[in-house]
């Protein structure tokens, strides 16, 4: 009943915002205030690290899943239940097309955002893409108690993560300007690794101190 009430609150579709892609340029030639987009599987730390990077760069932070929830008034599992994965992916594509047109932002994308070619084009054409990579076992340890991840509500979520990794890892790498391994470092360590890569490449101004 609660889900039905929630579903009725987002009956109208998000308005589609056509993507305007900037020509992809060498990192050294890019704007030092370029957007920074995080990709990676669920549990990789995109939201946590992205929010901290945004704070250090004094930028606005967005999480595409959170924006969809705020816009529709429904949690992601409810959208999956009422509209299916295809319906959710339509909303996700519209949101990414919209958010990637903003300037001077940090964006954490959903784990499946790279599945559609138009999303990969928006990300690659409008900012610097950072892939936070983790192995499926570590991701399973981080997400096994999270009930807000509809794709993992199966009898064997670890096997599902392994299957998702096989499909998505090449797509993350296709998009990425940088690949950051998330296995051992703390959140602060990961943030510093990301900022160091961005600063060395000259694609962001010197970040604020933590």
From TrEMBL:
Residues engaged in binding substrate: 65, 89, 111, 168
Domain of life, per lineage: Bacteria
Name this polypeptide is given: Shikimate kinase
Pfam families the record matches: SKI
Listed Basic residues bias regions: 12-26
Family under the similarity heading: Belongs to the shikimate kinase family.
InterPro entries (alphabetical): P-loop_NTPase, Shikimate/glucono_kinase, Shikimate_kinase/TSH1, Shikimate_kinase_CS
Enzyme Commission number(s) of this protein: 2.7.1.71
One BP annotation, GO: amino acid biosynthetic process
Main location: cytoplasm
UniProt-listed Gene3D superfamilies: P-loop containing nucleotide triphosphate hydrolases
Natural source organism: Burkholderia multivorans CGD2
């Amino acid at each position: 009943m609660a889900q039905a009430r929630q579903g009725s609150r987002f009956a109208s579709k998000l308005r589609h915002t056509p993507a305007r892609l900037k020509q992809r340029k060498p990192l050294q030639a890019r704007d030092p205030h370029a957007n920074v987009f995080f990709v990676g599987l669920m549990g990789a730390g995109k939201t946590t690290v992205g929010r901290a990077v945004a704070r250090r760069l004094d930028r606005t932070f967005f999480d595409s899943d959170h924006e969809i929830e705020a816009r529709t008034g429904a949690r992601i599992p409810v959208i999956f239940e009422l509209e299916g994965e295809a319906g959710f992916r339509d909303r996700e594509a519209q949101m990414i097309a919209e958010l990637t047109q903003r300037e001077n932002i940090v964006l954490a994308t959903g784990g499946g955002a790279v599945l559609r070619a138009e999303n990969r084009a928006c990300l690659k054409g409008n900012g610097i893409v950072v892939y936070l990579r983790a192995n499926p076992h570590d991701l399973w340890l981080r997400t096994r108690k999270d009930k807000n991840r509809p794709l993992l509500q199966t009898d064997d979520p670890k096997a599902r993560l392994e299957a998702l990794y096989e499909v998505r890892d090449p797509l993350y790498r296709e998009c990425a300007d940088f690949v950051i391994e998330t296995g051992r470092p703390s959140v602060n360590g990961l943030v510093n690794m990301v900022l160091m890569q961005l600063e060395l490449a000259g694609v962001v101004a010197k970040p604020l101190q933590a």
